[in-house]
Amino acid sequence: MPARAALVLVALLLVLHSPGQQQRDAVLDRIISVQATNQYAADILEQISREQGIYFSYNAALTDTLSGKITISAVNKTVREILHELFPGKEIRLAGRENHIIISAQEETPEQLTAETDTIPVKLLHLRGRVISSSNRDPVEYATVSLLGKPIGTITNRDGDYLLKLPEENLSDTVVFSCLGYARRKAVVADLLPEQLILLTPISIRIKEVQVKAISVEDILEKVRQNIVRNYPENSYLLSGFYRETLQQDEAYINVSEAALEILKAPYDNMLRDDKVRLIKARRSPDVKPFHWVNFKLQGGPFTITQLDVVKTMETFIDREFQHLYKYSLNRVVWYENRPAFEVRFRPVKNISFPCFRGEMYIDRESYAILFARFSLDDYGLNMAEQSLIRKKPKGYKVKPVTVDYQVSYYAHYDKWLLHTARASVEFRVRNRQENFNSVFHSISDLLVTNAYPTDLKRFPVKELFTINDIFVEIDFKYDEDFWGAFNIIKPNEDLRNAIKNLVPPKAEEEEEEIEVPEIININR
User: Fold this and answer.
1) Which of 80, 124, 168, 266 would suit a FRET pair with 425, their CA atoms being 20 to 30 Å apart?
2) Number of independent structural domains in the chain
C-alpha cells in the first residue's frame, strides 16, 4: 500500500492549532493591570478572568474570610504580585497551569493542590433536560437555552438535549427556552428539575395590525449598511465559545475534535481590524476510524469560522460594491426570535466571472440588523472557487468541491447584536484512477458563543493566537472525560466517543416559491 497522500484545504472556512504549551507557572509571571474600587475579592478575580483570560480555582472559604471590600490599583504588575495584594496577611499557595491558577491556603498538601488543578472556579449548577414540541413530542433541535437579559446560554442538540452550567448566584434568574416557530417559555432556575422536560408550543401567527409598507430590497440593504454602527458593538468584546469540528470519509467519521476558545471581537466600525482567536482547551475523540489513503487536513479552523460574521466582514451580498452581482427578492416578513424580520433571498446574476453565493438572510424590520444568514456556492461558483478552496493536493489526485454551505446567527445583548452561532459545511470528492481511489470528505465546523463581555483588551499574546495558517488536527490531543469543566457546550447525546453518529446536520429544506407581496407569518424550521 502506498504512503498516505497529504491533502490540505483552505475553504473560505476552517480548522485549528494549539497556541503552544505554556511553561508551568508562566501565567503567574504575566504582566497585567487591574483597577477596582470597593469590590469583593471574588469579583476582582472574575474581572481578571474577563479582561485577561486567566481563570482561577479556589475554595470560596478563602475569600469569605476576607473582611469587607477591596480597592486595588495595580499597573504593570505580575499576576503573582496582584494575588498577594488581594489576600493581605494570608499565607496562600499559587500554582499555574496554562491559563489557570489554583489559589489555596498554605497548609494544604501538594496532593490536594494537584487534585484541584482542573476544578471549576465556582460551584456550578448543572441544568440538564430535553426540549420537545408539545404537538408531536418530537425533539426541538438547536433551540436556544439562555438566561433572560444576560449573554449566557447554550443550544439543544439534535435530540433536543441541553446542558447549561451556571454559578449558584444565578438561582433566582430566569431561563428562556426559544426556537424559531415556537412560543418562548420561561422558568426560574431554582424551579427547574433534574432532567427537566420542556414543552414548546408551535405558533402560527398572522399579524393583522401591522402594515407592511412598500419598500425595495435595495432600500433595506442600504438601511442595513447605514445602521451597522447602531446595531453592532462599536467597542471590543471578549467572547467565550465552543467549537466542534467533524470530518467524515464516505460517511465514516475519521475525526471528531472540539475546543473551548475565546474570541477578541473587534469593533464593527473598524473593518480593518480582524478578530483574534485563542484556544483554552481542546480534545479529540480517540475512537474514530483512521484515514484511508488520503490524509485530509483543513486549515484555519476556529479563526476562519469567525470570518462567517458576514456583517463584520461585509460579505459580498451585503456590500454595496458587489450588490450589482446579485438578484434579490423580498419574499415575506417572518417572526424570528420573537421579532418581525424581512426574509431576503439572493442569488448571483447570470454571466459573471466571480464566485457569488445564493441564500437567504433575515433582517430585523425595525432596526435593520441582520439576524441570520444562510448561504452557499452553486455549481458555477464552486467551479470558479476551486483554486481558492484547495491549498495543496498530492500528485495524481483530482479534488473537486461538491458543496460549500455556511450559516451564521446573532443574538441581542441589551441594545446591540452579537455573534451567536456559525456553521460551515464543505464536501470534496477526491479521485485517483491509478490507485482506484474515489472518496467524499465532508467537514462540518460549528461555533457556539456562550458568553460575552465588553473589554478593553486590545490583543492576545502572539504565542497564544490561533491563525489562518494553523491546523487543528496537528495538535497533540489528549482525551479527558472532565474536559469541559465550567464551559457551556452543545451537549452530546452520549459520551462523545459513542455519539459521533449524531453530529450529522439536518437536511436542507426545500426552497419555497417566491411571492410577490410580503406578508407577515410565522415559520417553523
Assistant:
1) 266
2) 2
Hey, what's the cell of 172? 433566582
CA gap 521, 391 in Å, rounded? 44
Instruction: Provide the pLDDT confidence category of residue 445 given band limits of 50, 70 and 90.
Output: confident
Torsion sign, CA atoms 324, 325, 331, 335: negative
Question: Model pTM?
Answer: 0.63
Residue 299 lies in a domain: no
**What digits encode the pLDDT tens for the residues 200-229?**
988 754 433 344 456 789 999 999 999 999
> Tens of pLDDT along 158-173?
788 888 888 888 888 9
> Bridge-partner residues for 421, per DSSP?
409, 448
Going by the DSSP 8-state scheme, the letter that residue 465 receives in this structure is B
Residue 256 lies in a domain: no
Q: 92: which residues sit within 8 A by CB, 6+ positions away? A: 62, 83, 84, 103, 104, 105, 106
Burial of 220 (0-12, 13-18, 19+ CB in 10 A): middle
Do the bridges between strand 185-188 and strand 144-147 make them parallel or antiparallel, or are there none, so unpaired? unpaired
Q: Indicate the pairing of strand 326-336 with strand 520-522.
A: parallel
| Mean pLDDT to the nearest integer, 167-192 | 86
The domain that holds 147 is classified in CATH as 2.60.40.1120
Quick one: which of 298, 266, 257 has its CA closest to 446?
257
Residues 135 and 89 in one domain: no
Q: Are residues 196 and 146 in the same domain?
A: yes
d(CA 53, CA 149): 23
- Tell me if 57 is assigned to some domain: yes
Residue 311 is placed in which grid cell?
Answer: 456583517
Does some domain include residue 164?
yes
Residues 396-415: tens digit of each pLDDT? 778 888 888 999 999 888 78
